[in-house]
Amino acid sequence: MRRGVFFWWLMLASTCVHAQVNFNALPTVANSALDEQNPLLSPDGRSLYFTVSNHPRSAGGKTDKGDIWITQWTDSTWSQPRLLAALNNRNHNAVAGFSADQRVIFLWGHYSKDAILSQGISRVNLLAEASQEPENIAIPYFLNRSEYSSGVITGEASILVYSAEGFGTLGADDLYVSFKKPDGFWSEPRNLGPQINTRLQDVSPTLSSDGRRLYFSTNGRQGRGSFDVYYADRLDDTWTNWSKPVNLGPDVNTPGRELFYHLYPQWGIALYTSTQNSDGYGDVRVHKLSQGDSARAALPPVRREPVSPVVIVPAPVADEVPSDNRIEVFGRLLNSKDQAPVAGRIYFQSDSLLQQEVKSGNYQLPLRTAREYVITVEAEGFVGKTERLDLRTYQLRRVELNFALQPAEVGVTVNLKNVLFQQSTADLLPDSYAELDAVYNMMKVNPKMEIFLSGHTDNRGLHYLNVRLSQSRVEAVKAYLVKKGIAATRISGQGFGGIRPIADNDAEDTRKLNRRVEFTITKTN
């Protein structure tokens, strides 16, 4: 990581308010021909932090996915944006929030010289020595397969809401929340549930100051453009019970892509980014709030602990692992509809196979460190799950992994995220076998189940070639399942090419989500 002097804290600490800040001038100062993301004001409203991607001065040069910049109000104008080299490396960098006294800034990602070895958030004390690296903050069970992180840390730096493609994700990217506990450690992330999350991408969440209203962007609802901003109110302290999401409407949303909506009622504005009239890249925008947007009544305090403690039932393991090379993994199998315990089986595959029958919904296993595991969960009457767990850089001794299983009902569609092919071919990659085996086992324990496979591509290239490729991939998946022993009459399918996208085709990070194979349950008995 490149080092630098944290010079800006001096300005933040010593500047007095001599004139009203002109927030309307921010778009003129911050926007460029590049992609501006994640605009976030400091608590005093006099500094704007934002991320710029593919800038030639970035730590990773023009291929860098995003570095942090700052512009500051100097009584009469906003300063020329400056690159904060000390907070950037070759990965995607963004600000997650601030402490109330502005002495601590929270960052997305973990830092270790020039590489990120683990995931989560980190913090920097702006009064510390210039040579100090950001301090990594461990969040148990944190996983994000996406290349980007978005969200905020708020509530006196005690609530983290964020988007990720992680464990238990319902769609491409889901929204989660984690709480800082009284002992200083962070809780396991909690999925905000199907009232918020869709089968597509739900990203860039923020919270109102009372922690009750959630703002987020999604392409999984019928909005005005590829990504629209919505809000929903939290109805209780479970963080899974929400009012119906409401589109912010034409004052904010356009046929373009609107992201990173952040409310600042004390100044009567909100900041966000939009690609509308911006050459396809995100620009910082200012939304002037109405009286109803700016004033909200106080709400009950936020509960930061789970509703009830997890009861773990130990189970014997044949291959005993020495305690100094062991991580204890535990958790629950739950019905995604009502959170009831589910009986089933869980497998951890590495250089050896560990398995456990889960009778009461609880499991517990010691695993060796310095390994990567493929986790497979099976339960009769439910859609199986396949996840990956990399313990090669894990520093914790206990990890809780809970799995919400979807009932295997007619009409349920499942995206086979880990079924991969050689580029531009229908040749399955070996990493696909674990998830395909999970489909096989599901159909084996449900002998009357029938499924329909659908193959999809992005919209690049000729349509007839895309249809041909997607059809070949459907046939490859079917052939694998038939070879394992599933009757061919139980599997039908079709390739659709690029006519059924689930994400924006304008950028590669979203376009790749359209290249997929799914199955839909058409019969169960």
Strand order of the largest sheet: 1-2-3-4
Alpha-beta classification: mainly beta
CA radius of gyration: 24 Å
**Share of residues in strands:** 25-35%
Structural write-up:
With 525 residues, the protein is mostly beta strands. The protein contains 6 helices and 31 strands. The protein has a 4-stranded antiparallel sheet. Strands 5-6-7-8 form a 4-stranded antiparallel sheet, with no helix packed on it. A 4-stranded antiparallel sheet has the order 9-10-11-12, with no helix packed on it. It is globular and about 75 Å long. The N and C termini lie far apart (58 Å).
Q: Could you provide a short overview of the structure?
A:
This protein has 525 residues and is mainly beta. The chain has six helices and 31 strands.
Task: Produce the secondary structure layout.
Elements: H1 8-14, H2 26-30, E1 35-41, E2 47-53, E3 67-72, E4 82-83, E5 95-98, E6 104-108, E7 121-125, E8 135-137, E9 150-154, E10 159-164, E11 174-179, E12 190-191, E13 202-207, E14 213-218, E15 228-233, E16 246-247, E17 258-264, E18 269-274, E19 283-288, H3 291-294, E20 326-335, E21 344-349, E22 353-358, E23 362-368, E24 372-378, E25 385-390, E26 398-400, E27 403-405, E28 413-415, H4 433-445, E29 450-456, H5 463-484, E30 491-495, H6 508-511, E31 516-523
Helix pairs in contact: 4-5
